[in-house]
Amino acid sequence: MNQDRRSRLREAAASVLAEAGGRGLTHRAVDAAAGVPVGTAKNYFPTRDALLRAVAEHCVEQYRAVAAALRGAGPGPSDRAGLAALLAALLRDASGPGRTRMLAYLELQTEAARRPWLAAILDPIGAADFAAHGRLLRAAGLPSGPAHARALTLALHGALWHLLSGAPATLAAAGLDDLDAFARDVLDCACPDLHEEAS
After folding, report:
1. pLDDT-based confidence at 71, cuts 50/70/90?
2. Quick one: three-class SS letters along 25-91?
3. Would you call 75 helix, strand, or coil by DSSP?
4. Contact, 60 vs 125, CB < 8 A?
């Protein structure tokens, strides 16, 4: 089996899922997106579930690559302001250069609600975020217990759905029309500054 073509088909399938949603993920659409002859995707991924599995595995690989790059950049910001700036940058990436990746991942999560085998493939991504955010909180000198990491992670995960839909009134209500302020506010809620609270 041609591994380069397989990788190209997986990337095309992720793009189709991101752009057309679950209903649009067909072998023919993947063939068109990859620029290959009709029937090629079906030869590599015979069923729709096989296509979904391929996209999920591709998303897990992308997530691990992004996580490795972040770890390779060092332990993370050393203070609250630096961490807030990093979180805002990650959200900007999710709604900008990483938009296709994030849309494909969120579509997969929806599909996973009805397919336990798919949820099992995606599980390491969600679980790893909690630990990663705990490490970032520790590096920034902030409270980093499980409850703090959960509050931060769930806030960011919840924000993604609204951020990617881009509905203006919802973005404003959620504070997502100003990602720098949103990141600061979420961090303040997850890890309140005890000195400020006491004053």
Report:
1. confident
2. CCHHHHHHHHCCCCCHHHHHCCCHHHHHHHHHHHHHHHHHHHHHHHHHCCCCCCCHHHHHHHHHHHH
3. coil
4. yes
Question: DSSP state, 171?
Answer: H
Q: Does this model's pTM top 0.90?
A: no
pLDDT value at position 197? 41
CB neighbourhood size of 18 (10 A): 22
DSSP 8-state secondary structure symbol assigned to residue 175:
T
Q: Does the structure show a pLDDT above 50 at 36?
A: yes
Identify which of 3, 14, 11 has the alpha carbon closest to the alpha carbon of residue 44.
3
Distance from CA of residue 144 to its chain's centroid? 21
- Are 36 and 2 contacting, i.e. CB atoms less than 8 angstroms apart? no
Rg (CA), the chain: 19
Residue 105 in contact with residue 59, Cβ under 8 Å? yes
